[in-house]
Amino acid sequence: MAKNKNLLIFLLFSVLGFILYMNTLKVGFVFDSVSLKYDPQIRDIFSALKDVFLQYSSNRRLAYFTFAINYLIGRENPIGYHIFNIIIHILTAFTVYKFLEIFTKKEKASFFAALIFLVNPIQTQALNLIVQRMVLLSGLFYFLTLYLYLKNRETDKKRYYILAIISFLAGIRCKEIVITLPLVLTFIDYKNIKKIIPFYFIAFLPILFKIMVALNGNNQIGKVFNMKQANADLTRGKYFISEFKVIVYYIALILLPLKLRIDYDFKVDNSFFNIDVLFPFFILLVLIFLIIYLYKKKFLYSFSIFLFFMGIFVTSTIIPIEDLSFEHRVYISSVGVILFITLFIDEIIKSKIIKNSIFIIILLIYSGLTINRNFEWKNESKLWKTNIKYTPNKVRPRYNLVEVYLKEKKYNLALEEIDEILKIDNYYEAYKDRAKIYLETGDYNKALKSINIAISRYNKDIENYEIKIKIFEKLRKLDKIEETALKSLEIEKSAKMYNYLAEANYIRKNYNKAIKFANLGLEVKNNYRGNYLLGNISMKFSKYDKAINYFEQCVKIGRMDSKLYKRLKWLYQITGKKDKLKLGTLKK
C-alpha cells in the first residue's frame, strides 16, 4: 500500500513538474551557463567520469559528468540539459517529501511542503540556468542524505547509513554548499554524535583537496582558498554585513516570489551603523533567538529556521563572492521557510477543508507565477528587459540585452541600449560593443573611433585589438594591422595576433616573415589558421609533403572546408598518396 502511495505521489510530482517547465525546454545557454557550451571538461565523457574519482582541484566533478552525458547525447542542444534539470528537481521534491515525512511524522504537511517547494517560482533560476544543475544536484543529495540517515535511525539497518555517507560524498562532488549537512544532522540527532563524525570528516574533504592542490603546485594556501577579496572594494567584513539585508530579502522572496530577476542590485554596505544593516540584523537576531527558544518547545519550527540558515551559510557569511545575491542560492534554504509556513498553517487551521483550500490556493498561485516566469526565460530579450525594469541602474543586465540584440542583428536597439549604459557608467565595454555594431553595419570610421576610446579606457582587453584589426582589414590598411597586432602582443602572446601578422606579410608576399609569425603562433597554440597559411606557402614553393602535414593538422584540429578538401585531394594525387583517400584519412 505504501509503495502504491509513493508511486502515485511521484507520478503527481512528475506530471506537475513537466507541466510547469515544459515551455522552457528550448531556453538556451543564458548568463553564466554560456561558458558551459565551450567547456572542454564536458566534451570527453570518459575523462569526465575519471575526474569524478581522481580530480580534486575542483569539487564539482560529478555535476560536470552529468553535463558530459548531455553533451554526448545532444551536443549543444539545450533540450536534453533542461529535461535532465527538470528530472533532478522532481526527484529532489520527492526526496524532500520522504525526508519530511519520516522526520516530522506529519504526512499531509510534508506532502504540501514538498509540493510547494516543487512549484515555487523561486526555483526557476536554478532550473533554467543550465549550469546551476550543480545546485539542483546538491539539493537532491542534501535531502537524500538526511532521509537515509533518519531511515537508518528508524530501522537500524546499516545499508541506509552507508548509503547516506555515499549520498553525502556525491553531494560534495557537486557543490560545496552541502558541507553544512553535518551541522543539520547534529541539530537533529546530537545524542548520536559518533554516527555523525564521519560526515564531518567528509565535509572537510573539499578543504583537504585544496590543500593537496596547493602543496602539489607550490601555491600559497590563501590563494587556493580564495583568500583574496572578490574585488578590491568587497572585504570580508563588508560582504558579511551586506548579506544581512540579502538574507531577509531571501525569506520575503521565498514567501512572495514576485519581481524575480537574474541580476539583483544590492549595494555593498561600508558601515554596520546604518539602517540598511541594523534593521535586517535585528530581524536575523530574532530568528536566531527563535531557533534556541523553540528548540525544546516547538522543535520542528526551530529546525525549519536552522535549515534555512544552513542552506545559505556558505554563500552569505564571510566568504566574499562578487555578487551579493542570486535566487538559486536559496534552493536548499527554501525548504526551511516552506516547512515553517506549512507547519504553521497545519497547526493553526483546524478545519481540514479550509486548510486544504489554503494549500491548494498557494499551489495554484505559485504554479501560475512559475509558468509566467518561464515564459520570460523563453524569450531572452524579454528576460533582460524585465531585469532592467526592476534594476534600471545596474549595467550588467543592459550589457546582456545588448548581446541579445547583436545576436538578433537589431543594431539600432543595441545602440539605444548602449546610450543608456553610458548614462550610468562610462565603462569601456560599452564603446567596444558600439564598435562591434558599427563594424557590422559598415560604418568603419565610427567603429574605429569607438574602439580607440575603449582601448584608451582599458588597454588590457585583447578583444579590443582584434576588433580594431578587423576594422583595418575592411579598410585594407596592412600597416595598421601590423601595428595593432604588435601592440597586442606586448600585452599577451596570442596565436591570433601572430596569425594577423603572418597573413599581412603573406599578402605583401613577404613569405619568410609570414612563415616566422605563423610558426610563432603555433608555438603559442596549435591552430587552424597558422597551419592553413603554412600549408599554402609550402604549396606555393612546391613543398608538397610539408603542405600535406600542415593541412592534415587542420583536419586534426577538427575543421574541414571545401578549399581544404580540394587542396588535400590534389596533394594526395600529385604525391601518389591516393591510398589515404581510400582509407578515409580525408573526410569532406
Automatic annotation (TrEMBL):
Keywords: Coiled coil, Membrane, Repeat, TPR repeat, Transmembrane, Transmembrane helix. The chain crosses the membrane at residues 7-31, 79-97, 109-124, 130-150, 162-185, 197-218, 239-258, 278-295, 300-319, 331-349, 356-375. Residues 448-475 form a coiled coil. TPR repeats lie at residues 428-461. SUPFAM superfamilies: TPR-like. PANTHER family: PROTEIN O-MANNOSYL-TRANSFERASE TMTC4, PTHR44227. This is Glycosyltransferase RgtA/B/C/D-like domain-containing protein.
